[in-house]
Design a protein that fits this description.
heterodimer, A: alpha+beta, Glutaredoxin, 6 helices, 20% strand, globular, B: alpha/beta, seven-stranded mixed beta sheet, five-stranded parallel beta sheet, 17 helices, 35% helix, 14% strand
């Protein structure tokens, strides 16, 4: 069995790996393990001009939907996913808790990579299960639209079953995206998010 | 179906528990199916939900914490992207890694580590509670830690020891047995076409079979087995649907099969669906216009929801076009005893509350009078929905005053529907497939195969779907190598069905745990001319 960390390292060979901040300096083993579990890079990506359908049924346009000035935290999920997405969505839910009253200043975005199954109703039910607040939306649409977004961010792997754990952060419209491959904890995401906002 | 199916593995769990576990003094005995409930549903013997914790204090509970959610019902695991979820059946955990010919019964799957030391019950309990493997290394991030008490741990380990520990029915040393099921009221021409495709496909499969040879052995510890012959059993049912489950039980007892492939129904498939679910028999991709919509069931898998999907498409279009409540009522017409009845009920259930719905049922052999009566009552503010097959469509009188006329493409014959010219101006037909021009290139392959194999194309859609089902089965089994486990077959079909171009009518197929209908959408079309089999899209591909 391939170790998860070796596979992740291979995936980010060509990207710049930024050091995770000082919060873990006191616990070297935790730091090592955190580094192996998730790796960070930056990405220049332009979101395509496509229509997506939000979990409340509204049809919205990218990139405008994500360009209201708020920082964005984004991942790709599908509601039938058995292992990776529940873990990632749990982490998003924890991040939402960590942000507390600051959560409305963030736009949390989960885009379905199984849009034919994930109707707005299904996504809304999924969102309720994880107690998603009004700042966290799930999106679906046509297969073409979902694939276009995945391609733009470099996560499209042909089939939803081949997807990996990946999270994106963007401080503001037009800024570079920070890409985190693997299972970053809510603390790590919150930390990365705060760094991003501070450096705007 | 509200209840999951236990019977097949209940006996195994009992045996496993009795043989493998010793009760310590003073410990509470867990009920016999405790291991299965814990494994599949995440419910502890106490009745409380199972709780697991991942690193970073992310906790999961109940079904999302259940072992089966990731390790799957078969216990043989899976993979998603770069995450491999290993097999956890007893013979993997407790036997030393197999790399020798004696271990012929050990199914080979990804995640199988051939040279690893076996777990003991103590190290396995530690793995589950503390998240470290038998060598003390941390398990994957995805694997939660579970604080199970001794009673729950015993129940779980006993269950794992029983998983896929018996030889599967329908699997011989050199032959895989499959059944296809035909109900008595299936369309005779389509039935003929389907059987011709199945028999030819199986014959092709077996033409490459070279006969017995000793199992091969590679230095990487991976076993390659000679391919098996495929044997097709045609189970033709007779009499009323209430008697079909009993007939199927008798067939299965006489000639056990590994899975049901394709098949064809008329007005109902429900007894077959129930039989397969109760007896843990994979039921793959039958030709049915009215499937059973029960996505929490496991073994029956369908191409699409058929007329139920069409009902949803029409309901959606009615809601979109008549959002301002301009519709007076919906009039539906179907033939007695046919699938239109269920379709009409499904449509009615999706109409806005308070919108009246009227049904006209055709009973006589010649529909002309019944249809004339039904159509006569349709006024300008009504919508008319026709759940009719070609013979009844051809008998339609003059069209009604309303422009809101819909018909079922599946029942009517798609672009070949003999809809009278006068109706073609207003009518819209449901079309849950790619249009002929869209699918032409991908259809080249199956149509070419039919030609080369001299299979008359008497029912193109059914024969194409049958061929597609065979190819999916064949490719899935190829990926499984020799791990012939029924649950695993369904799990692998789920994972692999979207990996290929669809050489057939559907634009794409996709499945996943909890998804049992591979094609989920459709569109409405209009006829492009007053005569002839040409249609044009009336709106986009829609997922209702």
């Amino acid at each position: 069995m391939r170790p998860l960390n070796a596979a992740l390292a291979a995936a980010t060979l060509s990207a710049a790996v930024l050091a995770v901040g000082p919060a873990w300096a006191t616990e070297p083993h935790a730091h090592d393990h955190a580094m192996k579990r998730a790796t960070r890079s930056t990405v220049d990506a332009t979101l395509p001009t496509v229509e997506l359908v939000r979990d409340d049924g509204e049809t919205v346009s990218l990139p405008a939907e994500l360009d209201d000035g708020r920082p964005v935290v984004l991942n790709f999920v599908f509601t039938s996913c058995a292992s990776i997405c529940p873990a990632m969505t749990h982490i998003f839910a924890q991040l939402q808790d960590r942000l507390g009253s600051a959560r409305d200043r963030v736009h949390m975005v989960s885009i379905s990579i199984d849009p034919e199954q994930d109707t707005p109703e299904r996504l809304a039910a999924y969102a309720r299960r994880y107690h998603a607040g009004p700042q966290w939306h799930f999106y679906t649409g046509t297969t073409e639209a979902s694939v276009a977004v995945q391609r733009a961010l470099g996560t499209f792997r042909g089939d939803k079953m081949d997807h990996t754990a990946v999270t994106f952060l963007r401080a503001s419209p037009g800024a570079r995206w920070v890409r985190i491959d693997g299972f970053a904890s809510a603390d790590e995401l919150a930390h990365a998010f705060q760094e991003l906002v501070a450096s705007r | 179906m509200a209840q999951p199916a236990f019977p097949a593995l209940r006996g195994l769990a009992l045996l496993a528990l009795a043989g493998a576990t010793a009760m310590t003094a003073g410990a509470t005995a867990a009920p016999p199916d405790a291991g299965e409930r814990l494994y599949r549903q995440g419910v502890l013997p106490s009745g409380r939900p199972l709780r697991g914790v991942r690193e970073g204090d992310v906790s999961v509970e109940g079904l999302t914490a259940a072992c089966a959610t990731c390790h799957r019902r078969s216990g043989l695991g899976s993979w998603e992207g770069q995450s491999v979820i290993p097999p956890i059946i007893g013979c993997y955990l407790f036997r030393p890694g197999a790399r020798n010919v004696e271990d012929v019964d050990l199914p080979h799957v990804l995640g199988f580590v051939p040279h690893r030391q076996p777990y003991t019950e103590a190290t396995l309990a530690r793995a589950i509670r503390d998240g470290v493997d038998q060598q003390g290394r941390r398990l994957s991030y995805l694997m939660p830690r579970y604080a199970l008490d001794d009673s729950a741990m015993r129940a779980l380990v006993g269950y794992l020891k029983g998983l896929t520990s018996r030889p599967e029915p329908g699997v011989d040393r050199d032959t895989l047995h499959f059944a296809t099921i035909v109900t008595p009221d299936a369309d005779p021409a389509a039935r003929q076409g389907m059987l011709a495709v199945l028999r030819q496909f199986f014959a092709d499969k077996n033409a490459g079979y070279r006969g017995e040879a000793p199992p091969l052995h590679s230095t990487r510890g991976v076993m390659y087995r000679v391919s098996r012959k495929w044997d097709l059993h045609v189970w033709e049912l007779s009499g009323p649907p209430e008697t079909w489950e009993q007939q199927l039980r008798e067939r299965q007892a006489a000639t056990p099969v590994f899975a049901v492939i394709s098949g064809i129904a008329g007005r109902t498939w429900a007894p077959v669906h129930a039989f397969c679910e109760h007896t843990s028999l994979p039921c793959l991709l039958p030709n049915v216009d009215l499937p059973v919509a029960a996505e929490q069931d496991f073994y029956p898998v369908y191409f699409s929801k058929g007329v139920l999907l069409e009902a949803s498409l029409i309901a959606r279009r009615l809601r979109d076009e008549h959002a301002g409540a301009t519709l007076r009522r919906v009039v539906q017409v179907y033939r007695e005893g046919d699938v239109g009845e269920a379709a009409a009920a499904a449509l009615q259930a999706e109409l806005p509350a308070g919108l009246p719905s009227v049904v006209h049922v055709l009973r006589s052999a010649s529909a002309r009078q019944d249809l004339a009566a039904a159509i006569a009552g349709v006024a300008g503010g009504d919508a008319l929905v026709l759940w009719l097959r070609p013979a009844d469509l051809a008998a339609l009188p003059a069209p009604p005053a309303t422009p809101a006329v819909f018909l079922s493409g599946i029942l009517g014959g798609l672009e070949g529907a003999p809809l009278p010219s006068a109706w073609r101006v207003a009518a819209r037909m449901t079309y849950p497939y790619d249009l002929p021009a869209q699918r032409k290139v991908r259809m080249g392959f199956p149509l070419g195969w039919f030609t080369v194999r001299h299979i008359p194309v008497v029912a193109e859609r059914v024969e194409t779907d049958t061929y597609l089902a065979c190819v999916i089965l064949s490719e899935t089994l190829g990926h499984m190598q020799d791990s012939f486990v029924r649950d695993y077959l369904v799990e692998r079909v789920e994972a692999l069905v979207s990996h290929r171009l669809v050489n057939g009518y559907y634009p794409r197929l996709g499945l996943a745990p909890g998804q049992r209908f591979a094609s989920k959408g459709g569109r409405l079309v209009r006829f492009s001319g007053l005569q002839g089999p040409a249609v044009v899209a009336d709106g986009d591909w829609t997922i209702p």
